[in-house]
Amino acid sequence: MLDKSINGALLALRKQIIRRDGEGQEHVEALLAMRGVGMPRVMPAKRSDVARRGHMQLLILASLRDGPKTIREIVAYVAERRPEISYEAAYTRTGQRLPVMRAKGLVRRGDGVWGLEIRHKDDNFKL
Asked: Is residue 45 a contact partner of residue 19, using CB atoms and an 8 Å limit?
């Protein structure tokens, strides 16, 4: 086995130990030190509640498909479909996304409710 493969495996094992329970970390670091390998800082694991790009916008559009809704109704729809995030996080993310979507011409707000922006074919509107 190549030295760089062993070093890479030990570094990966160290990262896994640090991110989980920390048991055995001193042994792996001793092996890395014996091999003369530097130990870089281990970044925290990526958040599991991060949705793919554009997911929040799609959820909001889907919630408005059957008619205008208040922000609380939209948030309830989003929170139901994103159980990994808290209601408060869903409210914050929805509140941040709606003005962006309004600026893009996708939604409109009136009388305390949000609705889909309806465009005609002759408006030369492109998504």
From this structure: yes
Strand partners, 114: 69, 109
0.85 cut: is pTM over it?
A: no
Amino acid letter for position 58: L
Q: Phi then psi for 98, rounded to 5 degrees?
A: -60, -45
- Crossing angle of helices 25-34 and 3-19, rounded to 10°: 150
Cα 121–chain centre separation: 34
Give residue-wise pLDDT tens across range 23-46.
899 999 999 999 999 989 988 877
